[in-house]
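Quality-control log, excerpt.
Job 1 of 2 completed; input and output follow.
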Amino acid sequence: MEDKNPPTKPRVVCCIGDIHGHITKLQNLWSNLETCIDPSDFSTALIIFLGDYCDRGADTHKVLNFLISLPSKYPKQTHVYLSGNHDFSFGAFLGVLPSPIDGSEFKETWKEYEMNEEREGWYKGEGFENMHLQGRIWAGNHTLNGIECKGSIYDAAPTFESYGVPHGSAELMKAVPDEHKKFLADLVWIHEEDDVCIKTEEGIKSCKLIAVHAGLEKNKAVEEQIKTLKAKDTRISKVEPLSGRKNVWEIPQELTRTPTIVVSGHHGKLHIEGLRLVIDEGGGLEDNPVAAVVLPSMKVVRDTDRLVK
């Protein structure tokens, strides 16, 4: 007898690592994804960008234009744009972050780290008086252990220059188009999916997926973290799931009870261990590739791949 309910084909999910202003790498990676994924699957894929669209590379302006254009060019795809710590800080400088939920002022975020103000060269120009801490650091001037940063700790100078203004200039607030400001304002801090398939040693497994730029803190209640991230709680001086390192590397123990994929960028490496996926092979560096991982196949695709249709 014919099966009236054949198994549905798992939806393709593309998780794309940090881009950091490298438009040519992004265009080449997108072309390679389009080449190696079945056209009908690609046209309906879930595309998750893992954050850090700006800084380091020369073409942040063009990268944001590319990302903003995707929903109209690929209307059947679903596009998720996560905030990275660099994007958070860019948005903080432009004044597009949501106001603190308790009615406090952004200058309250300076207090925890104010002993670092001079060493990190925080921004003191126009509009700094009530700017979130990360915006001040992002637009500041800093030399790291004798090595010149590109403007600041965040290497933000190329972002300013991509909009035609020098690093640290308040003119950036006027130079950035409204659609770019809206894009930065709308970035989500976390994304959850309930039914994502992934190839494992035991075969194809259906899992929950959590995507967050750096990862979830190992020793904090997951539900509490998710609530804070969904609320975009800007009272926090440094949002660890967007900017942490060792403390967000592992999957929190409570998520191992129900199979949960945790996917991030941020860490400057490609690391796949069980259901923990870290996709940031480029780290924003000129000579490194921008990579993506395609689910359920777990295929790694890079901008440097030479694929033929």
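Job 2 of 2 completed; input and output follow.
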Amino acid sequence: MFTLTNPDRLKLLNHNEEQRNLKPGQCNKFLHVVIDPDFLKDPHGAQVLSKLTEQGFKYELKPQPVPSTVTFYRTLSAKLTSDGAMSEKTIDEPFAVYLLNGGEFIAYVRNHQLLAAVRSVKEQLPNRRLSLLVFGLVSYCRVHRGSVGRRETEQALTEVQLFEDTSHQLLETGEQVANFVAQLARSIAELPYKQQQMDKYSSEQVYLGNEKKGCVRVEGTAGLHQLYQAQLIKIPSVTLEIAEAIMSVYPTLNSLLLGFREAGVEASNLLANISIRRAGGPITTSNRRIGPELSRKIYVMYTSTNPKQEL
């Protein structure tokens, strides 16, 4: 009986642990959110911290190079080195959040300085994709009517997006700020897992397999029957009963395509006379059939070479 040596067993255990730590939910505990104290000013500060704690993220309150910013870093799980030791390291994530309150934002827009301000933040936080949060703009404008025009505001935000590749969010409540930071943290935490899944399916050229609910997983020939059925049901007007009726006569997609080829000029009418069983019961006396119109649609679906063909 084959048994693993101690180093091989440690490597296997370490690999399994790494894969487990990558999974959504589990990966949250390895992401650290570094928050500048100015980011946590009332009224949204407490909600940000409670939301991060609720979702299992670790956070640190530490002055950043730019006030009112948030950055992220990841602690990599301990890895086994060639000499049998365990190593652990951290890496900075290329993302940051910059918060402006309504008054600060309006001042930058009126002085045509918003683009320069965002550019300065990016220079001090190099190699990071910046997200701009504007908190309380609507509330500020209600109190200070006529402080700035809507067109001027939209132009300033468009410049930031175009010239500095910086997205923005206009938020009015502490809950919205907390949700944004937590959602961004979760997306960053899950990046390695999603990248691994993408690489896996790309390298193996697995186009039919998926781990999400409702998808058909195909390995070898297993799952082809279910995939064929799911494919038929996607055609407009084809129900599960109709798909089962077709598959009772043409059990595989290859047999259906072969039937179309052998039918020649009558191919579009090949399925018209196939009887449909209701809910898996016996064929009824009403003799319900697929009919010529639906038969034509299915024929066109599987044989047309025109990408703009309409069913």
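Post-run check on job 2. The beta strands are 31-35, 58-61, 69-75, 79-80, 86-87, 90-101, 129-135, 167-171.
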